[in-house]
């Protein structure tokens, strides 16, 4: 339904002597420090590399106050080996990452009045002086990955494939009473197996393309001993897909392409409800997707049209999430609540998937891409529109007060939606004096069932950057300075606001807070517009030493990001000076 970012590690090079690099880095905001290293070597058939990294940062600082308990610590490592013989290539990867990150202490409050104060008063409650300590609330994560991938050329065909196994362990520690404070409130272990095979075939009846299959199996288990109702149940999820994409080029500088895909998904869950009774459920879904596109090049101009269908099965959190997570909100999945006459979620039972006719999101997409290049100008413009049925989104439902504090309540809901948008980029090259780029991004969302706006749709954003390369300056072979200016507008296409104080007043007056209007709302107005000024410079000595210095948020602006829920309680970090030195040998 959205974009995918695919990150591939560089393969170690064959026929290379032992080489490596070491990087040390630090930053002022949070007093962060750390480094990383990499070693690699390659022979005639085999090559290998190994790398590692460590970073530690304390409390971040907003322009006017400390962001207590926002520190993090991470350590990781990776090893990779490659084998090559004629038309065959294979490599294996093993990586490990361990990360601990704090959650803003001021996002956890005691009662409803404290919640109202937390959203209106600065600095946040519990703000203290800077510290490297990471206390509760915090998150701990461990990620282990092993992956084997290979490719084989034969004739004009290329077949590629990989198998990977991932083990993810995640713990959330809440502020709890007594000895429970050192026991995670959420303790999950997720095993993921993934297999993919793809054939890039030779030209056939004028068509070029590929055919392939993907298989994913996930097994999630809750580790006992949290003394809480599990946030999500144990589950097993299997998905399988086969696809075909083909394209045909014509002599008039045009191209037609199409794709067809079939997907199958099966989800099985086993868990305990709020009364600790065992429940189970199964959801089986499948779908065909189609995509067609046409591209035409006319001198310096290129236009591409693309239309198709897409689908997305609901994930476990959207269906079965229950209770407090990330320590500051309570969330209920589609099958964990019903609504009473006041549209407040009732969570005394777990629904069967058939009770809510659970299906997949389905989208009809249209995309137009325009490219124009002449002399030193390059312009890209992309227009898109998505009509989505059974769109699953998270929305506020009220506030509640428990023995663990007062929290906003969110529920997953479904509707039909339209989400169009535009993004564009223009780049001009000034030759020896540098180049400039301006970019714009805008997305619009609308609930078609009641005409209301969605929450957490990013606002209109403009970004300007200027870069230049300067050679032979003092001891440096090259210096590359750049300056960036980003302006984010206020999200005016936001839902109405109902503050915690209004909920408190309604409860005290025994009045209906919604007054018959059950459209989506937010707990706080969207943040004001803001502008960020950033600077970066990279200096090189003999392609061996690399010095980088940057300044983020030079103006030390106080701002909040609309799509980040920390905006309810605190500003984002202020000015930050960063420096690093890299040595290659």
The beta-strand count equals 32
End-to-end separation in angstroms reads 44 Å
- Strand percentage, roughly? over 45%
- Content-based structural category: mainly beta
Q: Given the structure, what is the number of helices?
A: 3
Shape: globular
Report the helical percentage.
under 10%
Q: What is the mean predicted local confidence, pLDDT? A: 94
How many strands, what sense, and barrel or not for the largest sheet? 22 strands, antiparallel, barrel
Query: What would you report as the Rg, rounded to the nearest angstrom?
Result: 27 Å
Low-pLDDT residue spans: none
Topology:
Blueprint: E1 16-27, E2 32-42, E3 46-57, E4 60-61, E5 66-67, E6 72-85, E7 88-102, H1 112-118, E8 138-154, E9 157-173, E10 186-204, E11 207-222, E12 234-250, E13 254-272, E14 278-298, E15 301-312, H2 316-320, E16 322-325, E17 329-332, E18 338-339, E19 345-346, E20 361-374, E21 377-402, E22 405-429, E23 435-443, E24 446-447, E25 461-467, E26 470-473, E27 476-488, E28 496-497, H3 500-509, E29 521-522, E30 530-541, E31 545-552, E32 576-584
Parallel strand pairs: 17-22, 28-29
Antiparallel strand pairs: 1-2, 1-32, 2-3, 3-6, 4-5, 6-7, 7-8, 8-9, 9-10, 10-11, 11-12, 12-13, 13-14, 14-15, 15-20, 16-17, 18-19, 20-21, 21-22, 22-23, 22-24, 23-25, 25-27, 26-27, 27-30, 30-31, 31-32
